[in-house]
Design goal:
This protein has about 325 residues and is of the alpha/beta class. It is about 40% helix and about 15% strand. The chain contains twelve helices and nine strands. The structure holds N-carbamoyl-L-aspartate. N-carbamoyl-L-aspartate binds next to helix 3 and helix 7.
């Protein structure tokens, strides 16, 4: 489907989502986001297997993962299958015609003749938009390099709302490589539509994009940038931890320098805000110690479960299927 960057799905509802690509958090305004979150509540019982539905029967998801994935791929494919749909999969560009030099636009066009919706993860920023240019069915961005991960943004917001009972009024801290972490980019962008304060914790080399910081200033959104995790833990209602992404370092010595730069330990939460909600898109490496897992606010495994709920919702919405 074609995609006008910065396009807004002005409020709102079911029909506006039908046939739409989900490529960037920038596509959505507050009304769109709230509509998705409200719809997701209805899908939760299907994700939790308390109820069954076949609303996607006869529909096929083309699942293209040209970068490693566990949660995103499994949750998309599970979401499709639990709603009665089917999945055709390509994992690893080396097994597809992309390795022969086919353009993403052509791949999008070709897959559209087999599948009713396409989800793609690819190492290059803008790759899903390119695929969508050629595709005639909706394309969902499951991570385009260091760009965005909008379906993760939706499931993270759903998690925040569920865990905190609200989004407005919260202080949200992001910790890690904020420059290159796509899940942070999409969630932070979506949060700008709510009345939140931000704390950004990163080494100076890994700060949030300056254009995003400029936007926060323009919109009058409160934020603080710091290198110290302690500054965030003192005030944050939600602490969003991230992995230092090894795959983006060409020099292993450079990665070793940053690995372990922020490690969240149980005592740090207990001595600050014991009820803080701790999130992480996972996989974690060493940035959250295992003793954090049993804290009531440790939400990262519940967050992965929410992935099925939210991806059921998004697939159904773009395919125009209602429960
Ligand atoms: C994230 C990703 O791939 O962007 N994982 C995910 O989708 N759950 C984060 C990561 O890999 O660190």
């Amino acid at each position: 489907m074609s995609f006008g960057s910065g396009r807004h799905l002005l409020y709102i509802g079911f029909m506006e989502f039908k046939g739409t690509d989900i490529l960037s958090a920038k596509q959505f305004n507050r009304g769109d986001i709230e509509f998705v979150l409200k719809t997701a509540q209805k899908f939760e019982k299907f994700a939790l297997k308390e109820k069954r539905s076949d609303i996607l029967a006869g529909k096929v998801l083309g699942s293209l993962f040209y970068e490693p994935s566990t949660r995103t791929r499994f949750s998309f494919e599970t979401a499709m299958k639990r709603l009665g749909g089917d999945v055709v999969t390509a994992v690893g560009a080396e097994f597809s015609s992309i390795s022969k030099g086919e353009t993403l636009e052509d791949t999008g066009r070709v897959i559209s003749s087999y599948a009713d919706v396409i989800v793609m993860r690819h190492p290059h920023v803008g790759s899903t938009a390119q695929l969508a240019d050629g595709a005639t069915v909706p394309v969902l961005n499951a991570g385009d390099g260091t760009g965005e991960h909008p379906t993760q943004g939706f499931l993270d917001l759903f998690t925040i709302q569920k865990e905190c009972g609200k989004i407005d009024g919260l202080t949200v801290a992001f910790v890690g490589d904020l420059k290159r972490y796509r899940a942070v980019h999409s969630l932070a962008e979506m949060l700008t539509h709510f009345n939140v304060s931000f704390v950004f914790v990163s080494p100076p080399e890994m700060k949030m994009d300056s254009a995003f910081i400029f936007k926060l200033k323009e919109k009058g959104i409160a934020f603080r940038e710091t290198t110290r995790m302690e500054d965030a833990l003192a005030v944050a209602d939600v602490v969003y931890m991230t992995r230092i992404p090894k795959e983006y370092f060409s020099d292993p010595a450079e990665y070793e320098k940053f690995k372990g730069v922020y490690v969240l330990q149980r005592s740090m939460i207990e001595n600050n805000k014991p009820n803080a909600v701790i999130m992480h898109p996972l996989p974690r490496i060493d940035e959250i110690t295992r003793d954090v897992d049993t804290l009531p606010g440790a939400a990262y495994f519940r967050q992965t479960q929410n992935g099925v709920t939210v991806r059921m919702t998004l697939l159904s919405l773009v395919l125009g299927a209602r429960i």
